[in-house]
Write a structure and sequence with these properties.
2 copies of one chain form a homodimer. Chain A is α+β, with helices and mostly antiparallel strands and 267 residues long. Helix content of chain A is 27%, strand content 30%. In chain A, the strands form 2 sheets. In chain A, strands 6, 7, 8, 9, 10, 11, 12, 13 and 14 form a 9-stranded mixed β-sheet that branches. The first copy, chain A, has a 5-stranded antiparallel β-sheet with strand order 2-1-5-4-3. In chain A, strand 1 and strand 2 form a beta hairpin.
């Protein structure tokens, strides 16, 4: 963490005063959402995209936002002041709030929202990826939204590290490529820049969305065979932006800086 | 909750003194496990089975238990005293503890464990089940272990309720029946009592395990067609034990009390 503050339910408090209820469903059941955002030093990058995704996902899961997204965005900017004009990582957590035991959603649940800011040290090397055994549950809420239920992603990353890689390639339960443990994947295949489809389990990432909108990147069903024949590759997420891929399952690939620069220029 | 106490990391504290860190990975990433247990009024039912599953799952996820299971079991019994000899629901939550941001597992993570007790009102009617759209991620940690990453189960139950049922039948990504949102399923099919296989996404439930061990129930790959032709059915979990099924996807089934009694007698 940077500074002494945490933003909770609409206001800044001292970190030691932060109260999380033992019956908060974020804590007991992974029942909530999060956003990881880049504080550039003077603003939250792509803040409107993040707030739109948060609102849309909350709506899909039936979590009523008590603090409007404009107030959340203002709170994030307040937290950013603790970073003293240096880039930092903002994390926003939204839960369904406290509730009685059991999975049933209570009518009068009251959402809980919390944000923190932490130092951000972007990776300086291109990524080395390995396909892991864990699949992403294509079509399920855990794959469609950035929920707090992240155990499969955590263990996917652990499996990738055990294989000597620094990120995982996770296939969807459809058999096609979905995404990395905490990034989207873009590959160059037969001269086109492709990214996995939502139906295959790709998380609708903010940077991914911007690249698709720019027209530079197309959505496709990417089979493992296509991945094995790609000519360049990149990982994208809100914190790192666009990061080159140096190896896929121990096969070195030549990802050119010019290609990455072209992608970055579309953001 | 019953009483004023929560058991945390080895001791009872007043509920208002319970401190959950905003960087606890249970809260931020669903990175942990839970057990729901029945306090019978004088003991924790099947406590050894629950502690064995917890220890085994924690080991598989690489979470080092700092409080030994014997001490956890003793803590649960201490909490049980607040229930004043009445049946109650115990909930134990184990998380990987606090950590820096990101999914990578820190070498020096220090597990966090918390238990609460709540009133328990067992259902008095047999269950009405509906097959929901959400699949269970067969083979993934979220299906193999009782993790805190429960969003797919929550939304599966929500979908079942929207279909007018009171519990969900969740198919695994293998296409076979896996389990309900918070129970295992047993069906009578061609005269045999069958329960879905772990490889199809069944949670290794405590009551399920006891029934298999008793020889009364066999593990099988249960297709939706087999489900559609079953003659009796039951839901099992640690809190409710064995509960009859009255309807499957709006098809009434005649589950006999004698069959349920036979299953219960094997526990």
């Amino acid at each position: 963490m940077i500074g002494d503050h945490i933003w909770i339910n609409g206001g800044l408090v001292r970190a030691e005063q932060a109260q999380i209820s033992p019956s908060d469903r974020g804590f007991t059941l992974g029942d909530g959402l999060f956003e990881t955002m880049l504080w550039t030093g003077d603003k939250v990058r792509f803040v409107d995209d993040h707030m739109a995704r948060l609102a849309c996902s909350a709506d899909a899961l039936g979590i009523a936002l008590l603090v409007p997204v404009d107030a959340i965005a203002a709170g994030l900017a307040e937290l950013g002041r603790d970073a003293e004009r240096k880039p930092a990582a903002l994390r926003l957590t939204l839960t369904r709030g406290s509730g009685p035991r059991g999975l049933a959603i209570s009518e009068n649940a009251s959402a809980f929202v919390l944000a923190t800011i932490a130092p951000h040290t972007p990776p300086t090397q291109p990524a080395n990826l390995a396909i892991v055994a864990i699949k992403r549950n294509s079509g399920a809420p855990s794959a469609l939204y950035k929920t707090l239920s992240y155990i499969d992603n955590i263990i996917a990353l652990k499996q990738a590290r055990a294989l000597g890689a620094d990120e995982a390639i996770v296939l969807g339960t459809t058999g096609n490529v979905a995404c990395a443990s905490s990034a989207n994947i873009i590959i160059e295949y037969e001269g086109r820049a492709l990214t996995p489809a939502i139906e295959d389990g790709a998380l609708p990432g903010i940077v991914r969305g911007r690249l698709i909108k720019s027209g530079l990147v197309e959505v496709a069903n990417i089979s493992p065979a296509m991945l094995a024949n790609c000519t360049q590759g990149a990982l994208t997420n809100a914190l790192v932006g666009v990061r080159g891929i140096a190896a896929l399952d121990k096969r070195p690939i030549q990802t050119l800086e010019a290609w990455l620069t072209q992608l970055r220029s579309a953001l």
